[in-house]
Amino acid sequence: MPIYAAETPDRAEACSGRRWIGINPDPDAECPKPTFGEWTYGPLFEGTDAPELRSYCLYESASDEPQDPDAVPIDTLAPDCEVVVGYGHGFVDNNAVALEDAFMVQTDVVISLPKTSAPPTRVVVVDSAVCGDFPDGGDGVFEHGKAMSMMIRNLACPPGGPCLATVATELALPLVETPKGLRPNFRTGGYLGGISQMAVAIVKAMKRAGPPGSGPLIINLSIGWDGRWGGEITTAWSDLEGPFRAVNSALAYASCQGALVIAAAGNAGGGPDARRGPAYPAAWESEAAPDARCANLGGGPVSTTPSYRPLVYGASAVDGADVPLANERPKGRARLVAPAGHVVVSRDGIRSKVYSGSSVSTAVLSAAAATVWTYDDGLTAHDVMQKVYDGAVRLTEPAHLCIDMDDCGMAHRVSMCGAVTSVCQRGRCGPWRGCLPSSANRDARAVGLDWRTPTADVTGAVGGQLIAAAWPCTRDVYAVDPAATDTPCPHDQHYSPYTMPYAAPQPPEPACPSCGIKELTLNLGISNVLSSSVSDGVMNVTLNNGSQVGFSLNHLGPFGPGDTVEVELVGIHSSDIQSATIDFVLVGENLSTSTPLIVE
Q: What whole-number distance in Å separates Cα of residue 345 and Cα of residue 361?
């Protein structure tokens, strides 16, 4: 039998007992004082006049020890859980220039946009970057937030001008691992965050952008959490536990003030007991935008048109051939998808790592929405998204996330060209020669990539053959003989950082920063900064006909930091591969990793 984690991690592992969120029945009263213990306490959202937001109270341990919640005289009290993570796999790759060029082509970027004298649309990236003002925002110890900011600016501010987006950042992921456990670092930012910290960051983003009426505003959430910890679609917002309800209220507050919120639909977590459906808060695209509720949130409703008006808009990822990324969450595809496979971005002499996941698709969607809104600032947030949708390219894969969860139609791929064309019809944007969005299922993936000199230091090399076997696996036996009937299973499978709170949300560098299939060879470059070796490698391949094939690397490993791997594939042809991932276990860390492969 394969060795699996026994069950989904107990909720107690996710919630330290150091932070609690209470809902005060009287929003005009002060948060009740704890009757015993060492606490700091007060309103979760400082300085707001919205009654719904004033009802939330934050209780934190004043020491390094958890406190007894019975000390808090509030009936509706729930622990805050550090399960918010950035969605994107960072890579180091010597093909950065080729990947960056391919990404710009895949998004149908418009090199020279129609001229306009309108001020650029404000976008606040709520993520790992420390709080930073427009036009470029801040930085952080975890590059994720900064990279998303760079992507938005590059797409909406092409070299031929004009610049249609200005970006600020708000820190939602302040937590770092210390000898005393997870603690916030607001000076450099962190790698993950608490649910309520995300809620507070959304409200702060609204304040950073200025008072209502200051102009179009987009909140970019390339972060999220796994629904097993709370917030399920079937639960009314008024019945959610405090931390999750606080995020829902923050999103409703933004919607009532006329802001547009775009969130990542999430990446697959890996490990046993895989979660289906989109991540949160993107999953709340199934919830309609607030109407009467706005009276208690200081605004709106902003409009009643168009007919499609969700609380938040989700974004999912496809590669350069419009194929869903191999690390997409099962049954988690949003109506709008965007190119987000092995993406590199550079700005002002700084080049990012490589990212694959719905983080990137969220940034692309934010850039497209900002472009539309700058050309017509009289539109509402929902009008803007309707135009982006109208200008998007209809694909052949069904969507799973929408207000009417029973019929979401086909997914549409966001196109920067299509978005501009949608808003600039009939000469609205003045003289412009126009552009044409690329057709559905075109192949704009990067070509001519080179793995001969991986970025990782070459400290060792291994080689051999991988034999194709049926999938899914059934036995803990590794087939290296083409005639064998046993199918490979991960020998030791654990939860990924996405689903295991209190572990780092992802390694400082992923296990396989330079990975791809070219012709009949699997090319791997194991990160040279990993704290451990990797073992139990399994390559999962989806073929063009939809069937799956599995390969085991166990008989070739384990691999240490810096190892390069070239393996001949037997029983399969590269031209038959639609998408693939490579999975490893980090030895001694009890974490599984799953990384999409470049398929050339």
A: 13
Sole residue written with tokens 């930091």: 561
CA distance 128 to 140: 6
Q: Where are the extended beta strands (E) located within 283-392?
A: 313-318, 336-339, 346-347, 350-351, 354-356
Q: Which residues contact 446 (CB under 8 A, 6 or more apart)?
A: 95, 98, 99, 101, 102, 320, 342, 598, 600
Q: How many helices (H) and strands (E) does the chain have?
A: 9, 33
The Cα–Cα gap between 99 and 455 comes to 15
Query: What proportions of the chain, in percent to the nearest 5, are helix, strand and coil?
Result: 20, 25, 50
Q: If we measure between CA atoms, which residue out of 210, 212, 307, 294 comes closest to residue 251? A: 294
Q: Which two tokens stand for residue 147?
A: 């990279």
Integer angstrom CA distances of residue 541 from 99, 296, 551: 22, 50, 8
3-state secondary structure labels for all residues of 558-588: CECCCCEEEEEEECCCHHHEEEEEEEEEECC
Percentage of residues in the chain having pLDDT higher than 90: 46
pLDDT, one tens digit per residue, over 87-131 is 665 545 567 888 999 999 999 999 989 999 999 999 999 999 999
Report in angstroms the alpha-carbon separations of 118 from 216, 373, 375, 384.
11, 10, 7, 16
Residues 15 and 501: their CA atoms lie apart, in Å, by: 8
Q: By the 8 A CB rule, do 580 and 539 touch?
A: yes
Q: What is the pLDDT of residues 222-260, one digit of tens each?
A: 998 888 778 888 888 889 999 999 999 999 999 999 999
pLDDT in tens, 404-455: 888 899 999 999 999 999 999 877 888 888 899 999 989 998 888 877 655 4
Nearest Cα to Cα of residue 126 among 187, 197, 214: 197
Beta bridge partners of 559: 534
Cβ contacts of 574 within 8 Å, gap of 6 or more: 517, 518, 519, 520, 599, 600
pTM: 0.89
- The per-residue pLDDT of the chain, averaged, comes to 83
Report the C-alpha gap between 208 and 53 in whole angstroms.
Answer: 17
Q: 559 phi and psi, to 5 degrees?
A: -110, 140
| Spatial separation of the C-alpha atoms in residues 226 and 203, rounded to whole Å | 22
Could you give the CA distance from residue 92 to residue 524 in angstroms, rounded to a whole number? 12
Return the bridge partners of 470, or none.
549
Distance between CA atoms of 358 and 333, rounded to whole angstroms? Answer: 10
